[in-house]
Design brief:
Distance between the termini of chain A: 56 Å
Mean pLDDT of chain A: 88
Largest interface: A-B, 30 and 45 residues
Strand content of chain B: 15-25%
Largest sheet of chain A: 5 strands, mixed
Oligomer: heterodimer
Radius of gyration of chain B: 22 Å
Low-confidence stretches of chain A: 121-144
Strand order of the largest sheet of chain A: 1-3-2-4-5
Chain lengths: 407, 461
């Protein structure tokens, strides 16, 4: 499973420690086992056969946001995040996964089980209903209202426009489909306005990222293959995603994981070339002329999976700047992870909350009334950690849709 | 191994969460940025002076070895449990206690990261000059007990020049204060500056008082680019001779330039044999004038081009890259041992020549970096520690280099300290009388020899 190149990778770590202070988890916990350098050391010992896989190691390995800050800061170019991701998979195969990860695996790789589970569970307080922020400002999360339907049940498969300038496939992802249908409707509305026909292929599956992060990459192969089959189409201009995590999966992780698993990565690379975050495709459009003034003060949080994974930082900001009357204010450390990554809010709620509090503090200091971010997990995490204050948490595309003028 | 009742006592001081004994946790405290590993028996993470004092009472009663540690970015195993026992990590004692703007001093706990402290005082228009390359990792406590130097040494001196006072815990568990907050103090022996640079062998530092300067109003970063390494070395000597005092004066050779460019993508000149990275700081008018003088000077000494940074951001990017040099060099080979022998600055060019010659003779790849302005060389020995034969050649090359530094009146270590990396060379620089006196001082502070055992003074060849 672990390729020779990755085994050699651990020797690139010269223990300089430059990954320590930027790591949100280390910064909070302040012991070496919670740092990237510490985990790389343990992985090295395991690969050298000097340490056994253990539950304690597993716990340290999963006290990580997979935010990729360490990889971005490593002067010797060590791909720390790849090492951690592969080790997560190794450990889940060799030790029994704990039950939430097992359950997650069974839910996310089945087309019927997930909607059924969510349908049954949404009336009760449980793991998933914490999706809705304490203060309830999470965009228009209608999922937990009685009688609500998933996005793909609410909108047609094909959303045409007269005289289309292009045709795109829309990968909605689970979060938009089940929890944030308003984000999905906004994507369709805005793309239609700039002349794009939007198709939501039926039968699309979870991108698989939550499974990869939990170490279930073998289980997720089915998701990868199905999605590749469905979205690798020559007759469309782009595959659009609104979710940072789905985007990272389709653009980067699929190809890397297939390669790391010794599978054929060619179809994944073909798809990767076509995938665009909604902000990227809109940045190239004439959206500006359709926008009416929306007075207000907004701040933007960079999702790790959009900023660091995909290198998309300026596009969402520029789109917000294009809305007349809307003032974009930068928060301190906008690209610091919010603590919502890699299921940390479930794995280590106290750690995630500690990191979330710092993020929310930076947001407050901007005195913005709206915080925008293109990742559902960031929005959930930020919403969870806000108090009863009136700061609205949205996807940038929701503000854009609201700013569209009458035709 | 610690006995269960000792362990129980320690846990009763810091709690089970901050007393780590699992193999996984111990392995993560077995290293620093040097190449050796030593496994401690326990790691304690105290949060207050009182806890440190309690721990030392247990340690001295039971004769337990204790080794202090900051961020573990040292280059000589100084913070490793070389003979087992407890590693006392100060990472959780990281509060800035006070920044006094009226009297320009600050009080910090030892676990505060230097870079974070610098940024905090700079927000108040103050300035803490000591600036080791590892400032964004290393702690204030670590830099005090190692008397860290760094890039601004040429103009501003080293850590010792800024430490006014300390709060320390003695090996017996007694808490002691040294120095004051005032700039002048001649009351008794200068214990502050004795503990500063003691490599954690005398006492545990639990608070540091440092003096601060007003923040220089502006700064310019110059890159002087050379086709010839010799010319770069000569320029440095001439700048110093001419009485120009830049804030920093760093030299890097082609291997370093390439590794940094590979990491940071700043458009560094990949075909250059050497680059001098020079900061001038101070009042805007003076800085403008000085930058022009330095640029002219470099050109007259053979620089093919001198680039002047246009913005604070550009300054910053260059220095972020420079700080990453040690890590970035791992792109070339997996192991890097840094020498930091220091020579009188007038000999810089010939010292560099000597380094390259030693490398060639022993077939060791050496990249040259230097805090050139104060003659502080940083030859990087690039190797792979898994290759025993290569490591033997590295060892030989280092021996030769030390011989050279000694022969020209230089020093074994300018700023990294002795640790175990250079302990065997110590008698070459220090006379038996000097070593005996030092051992006597050690014995006075730590009669049981429980603090940082196996350190430089105890090394026997």
């Amino acid at each position: 499973m672990i390729t020779k190149e990755l085994k050699e990778e651990v020797y690139k770590c010269i223990k300089c420690g430059l990954c320590l202070t930027p790591c949100p988890v280390y910064n909070l916990l302040r012991f070496e086992g919670a740092s990237p350098r510490g985990r790389v050391q343990l992985i090295k010992k395991i690969l050298e056969g000097k340490m056994e896989l253990s539950e304690h190691f597993q716990s340290l390995l999963f006290t990580c946001l997979l935010c990729e800050t360490c990889t971005a800061n490593c002067p010797s170019g060590l791909k720390t995040d790849r090492l951690m991701k592969i080790m997560r998979s190794e450990i889940q195969e060799r030790l029994r996964p704990d039950w939430p990860k097992g359950m997650l695996g069974n839910l996310l790789r089945d087309k019927r089980r997930l909607p059924f589970f969510l349908f049954c569970e949404r009336t009760r307080e449980n793991l998933f209903s914490s999706q809705e922020g304490k203060s309830g400002p999470l965009g228009d999360s209608e999922f937990f209202r009685p009688g609500s339907k998933a996005l793909r049940q609410q909108v047609p498969e094909v959303n045409p426009v007269p005289e289309p300038k292009g045709k795109v496939l829309y990968f909605t992802g689970c979060a938009t489909n089940y929890f944030f249908p308003n984000v999905g409707k906004s994507v369709i509305k805005v793309l239609n306005r700039v002349g794009m026909e939007v198709i939501l292929p039926r039968g699309q599956m979870c991108c698989g990222l939550p499974l990869f992060q939990a170490g279930g990459r073998k289980k997720a192969l089915k998701n990868i293959r199905e999605n590749l089959k469905l979205f690798n189409r020559k007759d469309v201009d782009a595959v659009v995603v609104d979710c940072a995590a789905c985007g990272a999966a389709l653009k980067k992780e699929y190809a890397l994981i297939l390669e790391e698993m010794g599978e054929d990565a060619k179809p994944a690379k073909e798809l990767a070339g076509k995938v665009m975050d909604i902000s990227q495709i809109l940045a190239r459009s004439d959206l500006g002329k359709w926008l009416k003034p929306v007075p207000g003060r907004v701040t933007y949080h960079d999702p790790c999976h959009l900023g660091r994974s995909q290198g998309v930082r300026e596009e969402p900001r520029n789109l917000l700047r294009r809305i007349p009357g809307l003032e974009l204010v930068e928060m301190a450390g906008a690209d610091t992870c919010c603590g919502g990554g890699a299921a940390l809010p479930w794995e280590h709620p106290d750690v995630a909350a500690g990191i979330g509090r710092n993020k929310v503090q930076s947001i407050r200091e901007t005195r913005a009334t709206v915080v925008a971010s293109g990742c559902p997990w960031c929005r959930r995490q930020i919403g969870e950690n806000l108090d009863e204050e009136q700061i609205r948490v949205v996807h940038p595309v929701e503000i854009l849709a609201e700013a569209l003028n009458e035709k | 191994m610690l006995s269960p009742d000792v362990l129980q006592k320690l846990i009763s001081i810091v709690g089970p969460e901050r007393c780590k004994t699992s193999r996984e946790d111990l392995l993560t405290y077995a290293y620093d940025a040097y190449v050796r590993e030593f496994l401690p028996d326990a790691v304690l993470l105290p949060k207050s002076t009182a806890e440190v004092a309690e721990i030392m009472k247990v340690a001295s009663t039971r004769n337990l070895f204790v080794t202090p540690r900051g961020s573990g970015s040292g280059l000589g195993a100084g913070s490793l449990a070389k003979q087992g026992g407890i590693v006392l990590s100060f990472s959780m004692m990281n509060r800035i206690v006070e920044i006094n703007t009226a009297n320009r001093y600050a009080v910090v706990e030892p676990g505060v990261v230097i870079g974070e402290f610098q940024r905090a005082v700079e927000k108040l228009n103050l300035f803490y000059p000591p600036d080791p390359g590892s400032a964004n990792v290393a702690t204030m406590g670590g830099s005090v007990v190692m008397n860290a130097g760094g890039m601004r040494g040429v103009k501003y001196g080293v850590t010792r020049d800024y430490v006014l006072g300390l709060e320390v815990v003695l090996p017996s568990g007694e808490v002691m204060k040294t120095g004051t907050v005032t700039a002048k103090d001649v009351t008794g022996y200068d214990l502050t500056r004795l503990i500063c640079g003691s490599e954690g062998t005398l006492a545990l530092v639990t608070k540091v008082i440092v003096r601060l300067l007003p923040k220089p109003k502006t700064k310019r970063t110059l890159q002087a680019i050379y086709n010839n390494l010799d010319d770069a070395g000569n320029t440095v000597a001439r700048i110093i001779e001419a009485g120009i005092i830049p804030a920093t004066l760093e030299l890097m050779d082609q291997t370093i330039i390439k590794a940094l460019e590979d990491f940071a993508h700043l458009g560094l000149p990949l075909d250059a044999a050497a680059v001098l990275l020079i900061d001038v700081d101070g009042e805007p008018e003076t800085v403008e004038k000085q930058a022009a003088v330095v640029a002219e000077f470099c050109k007259s000494q053979g620089a093919r081009d001198v680039r002047v940074s246009q913005s604070e951001k550009e300054n910053e990017q260059l220095w972020v890259a420079r700080r990453a040099a040690f890590g970035a060099i791992a792109r070339v080979r997996p192991t890097c041992i840094i020498e930091d022998a220091t020579v009188p600055v007038s000999l810089l060019a010939s010292a560099i020549k000597k380094i390259l010659e030693v490398g060639e003779r022993n077939r060791v790849q050496i990249a040259v970096l230097a805090h050139a302005g104060d003659g502080n060389l940083h030859p990087f020995f690039l190797c792979d520690q898994r290759d025993k034969e290569e490591m033997a050649r590295v060892e030989r090359a280092m021996d030769e280099l030390v011989d050279y530094a000694m022969s020209v009146g230089g020093t074994l270590s300018g700023e990294h300290g002795i640790g175990i990396a250079k302990a065997k060379y110590l008698p070459r620089q220090l006379s038996p009388a000097s070593l005996n006196l030092m051992r006597g001082i050690k014995k006075t502070f730590d009669p049981q020899g429980i603090l940082n055992p196996g350190s430089f003074l105890e090394h026997r060849a």
